[in-house]
Structure formats: structure tokens, C-alpha cells
Amino acid sequence: MSDFYNVKLIINKELSLQRLDKVLVSRLESYSRTQIKTLILNGNVIKNGAEIKDPSHITRENENYSINLFINHKKKHQPEEINLNIIYEDEDLIVINKQSNLVVHPAPGNESGTLVNALMYYTNNQLSNLDNGTRPGIVHRLDKDTSGIIVVAKNNNIHIDLAKQFKDHSISRKYKAIVWGLPNSQIIEGHIDRNKKNRKKMSLNSKGLGKFSKTVIKLEKTFGIASLIDCELHTGRTHQIRVHLTSKNSPVVGDKVYGKSKINQFGKDKTTFNKFMILKNFERQALHAYHLAFDHPKSKKRMNFDVDLPEDFKNLLELLVKY
């Protein structure tokens, strides 16, 4: 349940000529940037009687804003008994081989049945809580339909150390992907930012906006209209691999968000039509995080983890060879 109350804000010289969402985040410290953006997009920020629905709106000195803020009566996440494939555990952290179709943490529309709910049950809620318990234990994420290795922190000191390693890009992460087409082995670089037309998507831009991203891809095997590739992350941006591969006209097979308009070209050849239908009907994105390496926050020993491809991924490769 959420209630609202009103806050007035006058833009001074210090706050002038900045993005509206950044200004509000700096002044409303108990609200996350995502929450602030949601308020703006929902028309809860008023200037001169008009709703401002653009988070990137530039403020001007002496402007008056009226903000309807919500009082969030937080729901406590509930522990749930969900099977976990744990590949390593000690008193400080857990390394899990996450199955596909599992959301990492609760969010609107996915309040239960997540990895967090499972971890709370398994550890009796002995997890890091740097974010006031909204995402206990979660240092990094994998998309719902991406399978593979994820590391979880049991306490705040471990969380902070691991988060720094992710920020410094000293953690090694590698993925296998089945993609449309025949991409060359290459390095893909560019700045990734939120898509202006669809806020649920990310996109590369040529203006240097957003965060720098880098992926090294290696072609391992081709099946004519699709290929198996290895992806090594040098940065870890939201949807990075999916955005990068789509930019090269080789979207990840099964990706329902990126590259859908690029797929039909591969179904024009009658000799590969069966293969095309097999690929098109794959039920999730063919992306698997098979390798993770980091320095253990306590021992400083390098920890290396590798997992096999999941069965659905293997079955798809077998069908591609067969047809």
C-alpha cells in the first residue's frame, strides 16, 4: 500500500541546468533513482501547473516544482523453499548455478518465486542487507531467462568487497550464446544508455551517453543461419551482451526484447527452414554464464568456477547439428 504527500522544491543556482531526475535524487535521499524516475513518468512532478514526465528535463534557476511523493509501506519478502544448484559455499558467500526462468530479486510483477526468496529460506535470511533488505545478498544479476553462475554475499563486508571488484572489472565473466547469423570474432565497444522510446530496453549510442561497455566475442561454431559464440565481459552493463550482439545483426536466439525484427531474414531459404523454426521456437534466450572468477574477499585467493551448458542449451545444439 502507498500513500502520497506533497513536497515543494525551488531550483537554486546549484541545482540549475541539471537533469530533473538527478536533482530529485540529490534532494530526496530516501528514494532511489528508479523510484524517482517512476514518479516523474507517472506525472507526479508538477511545474507551473503542468506535469513534467521527462526524467531528462533540464532545470532552470528559480523554477518551482511540486512533487507528490509516496510513503512506501514496504512488503517484507517471504522465504520460499525453491531448489538451488549450489556449486560452492562458505561462511561468507554462496556461488549458484541459476536456472533459466528464475528472476533474481523481487520487483513489481515478480514479488515471489525469486532467487532472493529461495536464498532467504536456505540461509534463514543470513544475507547482506546494504539496501535495507530490498535485495538481500544480491551483488550482481542475471536476466530471468539467462542461466549460469551468480555469487551471493552473506554479510555486508563481503558484499562491499565483491561489489568493488565488479566496479573495477577485476572479476572474470564468460558466457556461451547461440545467436542468429555468422558474427565475426571481434571486440564490441560503445556506450550503453536507456532506450529513449522504450524504457525497458537499453541501446548503444554514438554520442558517448550512458556507460562505456566492452565485450569480446569469439566464433566457436557455425550452423549456417546460427552460430555458437563465446562472450567475455570486460564491463557489466544492463543487457550488455544482448545489445552488443543485436548491434551486429546477430541477436541472441530466443531473445524476446532485442532483435525480433532481424530474425525473419533467416527463414527465407527453404533448405534451412526446419532449422529456422527450431531456433525461432526456442523458449528462452540462449545465453548461459558458464564462467565466473573473483578474489575471495577474506583469503584473497582467486576463485574460479565453471559450469556445463544446461540441458535445453545442449538439446538445441544437437538439433542444429542434426538439421
Summed over residues and divided by their number, the pLDDT gives a mean of 92
Unreliable stretches: none
The backbone outline, from C-alpha atoms, is globular
Distance between the termini: 53 Å
In CATH, the homologous superfamily of the largest domain goes by the name Pseudouridine synthase
Supply the helix-strand structural class.
Answer: alpha+beta
Count of extended strands = 14
Rg (C-alpha, Å):
22 Å
Q: What is the level 1 CATH name of the largest domain?
A: Alpha Beta
CATH-defined fold name of the largest domain: Pseudouridine synthase
Report helical residue fraction: 10-25%
Largest sheet: 10 strands, mixed
Order of helices and strands: EHHEEEEEHEHEEEEEHHEEH
What is the tally of helical segments?
7
Relative strand content: 25-35%
Compute the number of structural domains. Answer: 3
SSE arrangement:
Elements: E1 2-10, H1 20-27, H2 33-41, E2 45-47, E3 50-51, E4 64-72, E5 86-89, E6 93-98, H3 115-123, E7 147-153, H4 156-168, E8 172-180, E9 186-194, E10 202-205, E11 211-222, E12 226-233, H5 240-247, H6 273-280, E13 287-295, E14 302-306, H7 311-322
Parallel strand pairs: 7-13
Antiparallel strand pairs: 1-4, 2-3, 2-4, 5-6, 6-7, 8-12, 8-13, 9-10, 9-11, 11-12, 13-14
Helix pairs in contact: 1-2
